[in-house]
């Protein structure tokens, strides 16, 4: 079964400034926050808009999202410098989904997603060095450089990838939920997909079985409104993805609000453990194009992109909340961002030092048990190996 | 490489039946108290025990499910219907609906669910009513199962078995008759097995279920009812056949005939006919399409100097083509004649009985090809 170790998130840093200040709130004083928008339910009573949090969590949200944002922007530069090759799908703008979800669940719950996976990997306990090294194809990468951007995994943290085939991760996620139920684990699986994947047939096949067998599966549609270059209204007859489950209840959530995401995931986990599958539609947005090969501005206006950045940016929302509750000053938050920038730069430098994988790694991990079989390179007389 | 083949030639190829030692872990076993129907084969105490391939598969599944709580069976009609071809007869009654799962007719969905369960650590056996239907799920077999251990650098392995009838049945037409051994056999990360006899069926299925990697297990519908003699060793619950080793079903010295699945039977019949004309054929039962037992095949051809490859599937880019290439690369100087390939006709399978017969290899075809070499 999945081995699970509870690890303090590498994203959590000492809250030096919060504790040393003369603020009246201790880091664990409960604070109630209202979500920006109410939830909309499909065949279900939506949860309340009031979300419990603490100063510690608020600061953590800020830090984690700022770190994710910085990582993705740094990856953009690395890609343009040709240190990252092939496909690179960036998550900046969608950080609230990763961070809100993580705060509502444990590492015994499973997450599976498609190729926009860097930030989710970080949330599950992955380190910056592992991420950057993998992006640059180095041996310190989380997949030893053999996976690349789309194939980050961390089974011990409950993160099952990292998949390149649109939609395939949804039945796989329902399979994880099946195994959790089979093993009587009392945990759930979040199977994440985009508005583009929401029309996939295999999703409905898997959802049917999840509902039939009461699997603890939560299908999370990260609706950033564009499937590559195709807007949702051009791809889906019904872009109300939270309703597409028909007999499966659904919830529409403001995906730019980390607390709405937290509330929805907490609610969904309780539901799934008792009643089987539920769909969460996260209304979110990606600032970058579909991938680094896509400028992202041929099918959207720059006004739209900057409009979202101004009105709905997830990191800014938390910054305002932190300031409003007097948990830190503007300067302290800016210092945090500077620390994060340095942390990311240091990680990149360390990842750059990591060498490319050893040539023998071409033939490793094909099988767990190779039975001494021979495997061949391009010129089979020249390059061959015995699989252990 | 040459040295390796020569030393293995001396050691002989295959035929060994290694019982792999195993520590059995029993997790909370919940046996439902349904009627305990015996699902094993005939066990008469007369001299030679015989077992049908169907019973061999059934008993292998049953024993592996008893031994490891993580093993489960899912597919269409595997439960209440007792199996579309009755291979899973009695298993639902014995192991319960949590472990023998009837799925809707949604191959892509349930294959994905099976692979996801394997990611988590379960050991699913996914049954396809025929491998023709597995084409709907082939993305999961290849991209989700075969490649994951490599892409994750060993973080996630996929201990899953995909099994079901492969190749032609009788009169089922073009969409229900294709052989997929060449397709799956070309994919790194998969193991592809093709049993012939009941011994093969039991030993290879047990090995497949115990294997930590994804295995495609190609059965044959027409063989299910055929009975084969089985020794006490085969019937024992620890019996296992090593993956990647071919079996020399009949020793010979004039020509090597390689085959798998139903064609092994045809090749053995062809060998009997050839013997009447003084031609001593060596018949190899490949058992494993991937990994292919190149050393046994090369070793045999170095002895006989002649090769006929036999398969049911389309010859272009087929298993025989790969075997021919292997011989040309590694044993060229030992060939006294070009390699002959017998395969299915290059046509979609017709329905009319006479055309169907022409579309599939017959014993006469194998005999004729072997005689051309002498």
Can you walk me through this structure?
The complex is a heterodimer of chains A (388) and B (374). Chain A is α/β, with parallel strands linked by helices. Helices cover 38% and strands 13% of the residues of chain A. Chain A has helices at 16-20, 55-80, 95-104, 118-123, 128-135, 169-182, 201-212, 232-235, 258-275, 302-312, 314-324, 330-353, and strands at 31-34, 40-42, 50-53, 110-112, 189-194, 217-223, 226-227, 230-231, 250-254, 278-283, 373-376, 384-387. A six-stranded mixed beta sheet of chain A has the order 2-9-10-6-5-4, sandwiched between helices. A two-stranded antiparallel sheet of chain A has the order 1-3. A two-stranded antiparallel sheet of chain A has the order 7-8. In chain A, a hairpin with a 2-residue loop joins strand 7 and strand 8. In chain A, helix 2 packs across helix 3 and helix 3 (95-104) crosses helix 9 (258-275). Chain A is globular and about 70 Å long. In chain B, the strands form three sheets. A seven-stranded mixed beta sheet of chain B has the order 3-2-4-5-7-6-12, with helices on both faces. Chain B has 374 residues and is an alpha/beta fold. Chain B is globular. Chain B has 14 helices and 14 strands. Classes of the chains: A alpha/beta (388), B alpha/beta (374). At the A-B interface, helix 6, helix 7 and strand 11 of A face helix 4, helix 5 and helix 6 of B.
Strand and helix layout:
The complex is a heterodimer of chains A (388) and B (374).
Chain A: H1 16-20, E1 31-34, E2 40-42, E3 50-53, H2 55-80, H3 95-104, E4 110-112, H4 118-123, H5 128-135, H6 169-182, E5 189-194, H7 201-212, E6 217-223, E7 226-227, E8 230-231, H8 232-235, E9 250-254, H9 258-275, E10 278-283, H10 302-312, H11 314-324, H12 330-353, E11 373-376, E12 384-387
Chain B: H1 2-11, E1 49-52, H2 53-67, E2 71-75, H3 91-95, E3 100-102, H4 107-120, E4 123-127, H5 138-146, H6 148-151, E5 161-165, H7 181-185, E6 191-193, H8 198-210, E7 215-219, E8 227-230, H9 232-235, E9 247-250, E10 255-259, H10 262-276, E11 281-285, E12 288-290, H11 294-304, E13 307-310, H12 319-331, E14 340-342, H13 353-359, H14 363-373
Parallel strand pairs in B: 2-3, 2-4, 4-5, 5-7, 6-7, 10-11, 10-13, 13-14
Antiparallel strand pairs in B: 1-8, 6-12, 9-11
Helix pairs in contact in B: 1-11, 2-8, 4-5, 10-14, 11-12
């Amino acid at each position: 079964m999945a081995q699970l170790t509870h690890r303090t998130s590498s994203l959590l840093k000492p809250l030096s400034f919060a504790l040393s200040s003369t603020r009246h709130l201790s880091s664990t004083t409960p604070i109630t926050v209202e979500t920006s928008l109410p939830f909309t339910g499909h065949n279900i009573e939506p949860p309340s808009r009031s979300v419990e949090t603490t100063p510690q969590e608020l600061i953590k949200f800020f830090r984690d999202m700022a770190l994710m944002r910085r990582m993705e922007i740094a990856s953009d530069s690395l890609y343009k410098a040709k240190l990252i090759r092939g496909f690179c799908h960036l998550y900046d703008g969608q950080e609230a989904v990763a961070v809100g979800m993580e705060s509502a669940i444990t590492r015994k719950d499973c997450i599976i997603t498609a190729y926009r996976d860097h930030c989710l990997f970080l949330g599950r306990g992955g380190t910056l060095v592992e991420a950057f090294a993998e992006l640059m194809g180095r041996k310190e990468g989380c997949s030893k450089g053999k996976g690349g951007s789309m194939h980050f995994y961390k089974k011990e943290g409950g993160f099952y990838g990292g998949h390149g085939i649109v939609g395939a991760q949804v039945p796989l996620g329902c399979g994880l939920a099946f195994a959790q139920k089979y093993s009587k684990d009392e945990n759930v699986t979040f199977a994440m997909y985009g508005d583009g994947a929401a029309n996939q047939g295999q999703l409905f096949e898997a959802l049917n079985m999840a509902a039939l067998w009461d699997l603890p599966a939560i299908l999370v549609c990260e609706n950033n409104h564009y499937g590559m270059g195709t807007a949702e209204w051009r791809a889906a007859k019904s872009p109300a993805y939270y309703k597409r489950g028909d007999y499966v209840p659904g919830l529409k959530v403001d995906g730019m609000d980390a607390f709405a995401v937290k509330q929805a995931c907490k609610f969904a986990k309780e539901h799934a453990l008792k009643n089987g599958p539920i769909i969460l539609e996260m209304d979110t947005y990606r600032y970058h194009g579909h991938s680094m090969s896509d400028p992202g501005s041929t099918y959207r206006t720059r006004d739209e992109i900057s409009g979202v950045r101004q009105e709905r940016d997830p990191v800014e929302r938390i910054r305002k909340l932190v300031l409003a509750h007097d948990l830190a000053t503007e300067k302290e938050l800016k210092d945090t961002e500077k620390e994060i920038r340095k942390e990311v730069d240091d990680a990149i430098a360390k990842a750059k030092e990591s060498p490319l994988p050893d040539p023998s790694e071409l033939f490793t991990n094909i099988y767990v048990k190779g039975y001494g079989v021979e495997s061949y390179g391009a010129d089979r007389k020249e390059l061959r190996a015995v699989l252990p | 490489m040459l040295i390796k083949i020569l030393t293995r030639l001396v050691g002989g190829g295959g035929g060994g039946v290694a019982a792999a030692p195993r520590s059995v872990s029993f997790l909370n076993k919940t046996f439902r108290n349904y009627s305990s129907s015996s699902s094993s084969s005939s066990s008469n105490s007369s001299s030679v025990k015989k077992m049908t391939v169907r019973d061999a598969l059934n008993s292998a599944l049953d024993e592996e499910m008893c031994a490891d709580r993580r093993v489960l069976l899912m597919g269409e009609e595997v439960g209440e219907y007792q199996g579309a071809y009755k291979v899973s007869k009695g298993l639902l009654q014995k192991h319960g609906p949590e472990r023998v799962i009837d799925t809707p007719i949604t191959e892509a969905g349930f294959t994905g669910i099976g692979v996801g369960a394997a990611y988590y650590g379960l050991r699913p056996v996914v049954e396809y009513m025929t491998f023709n239907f597995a084409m709907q799920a082939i993305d999961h077999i290849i991209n989700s199962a075969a490649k994951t251990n490599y892409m994750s650098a060993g973080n996630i392995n996929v201990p899953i078995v995909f099994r079901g009838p492969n190749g032609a049945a009788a009169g089922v037409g073009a969409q229900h008759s294709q052989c997929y051994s060449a397709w799956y056999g070309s994919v790194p990360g998969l193991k592809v097995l093709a049993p012939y006899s009941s011994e093969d069926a039991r030993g290879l299925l047990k090995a497949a279920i115990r294997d930590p990697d994804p295995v495609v297990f190609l059965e044959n519908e027409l063989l299910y009812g055929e009975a084969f003699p089985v020794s006490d060793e085969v019937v024992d619950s620890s019996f296992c056949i090593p993956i990647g080793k071919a079996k020399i079903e009949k020793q010979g010295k004039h020509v090597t005939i390689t085959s798998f699945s139903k064609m092994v039977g045809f090749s053995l019949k062809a060998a009997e006919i050839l013997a009447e004309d003084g031609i001593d054929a060596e018949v190899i039962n490949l058992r494993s399409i991937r990994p292919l037992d190149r050393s046994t095949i090369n070793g045999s051809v170095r002895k006989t100097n002649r090769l006929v490859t036999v398969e049911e599937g389309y010859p272009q880019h087929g298993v025989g083509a790969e075997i021919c290439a292997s011989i040309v690369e590694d044993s060229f100087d030992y060939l006294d004649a070009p390699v002959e390939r017998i395969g299915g006709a290059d046509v979609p399978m017709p329905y009319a009985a006479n055309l169907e017969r022409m579309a599939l290899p017959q014993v006469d075809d194998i005999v004729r090809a072997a005689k051309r070499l002498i």
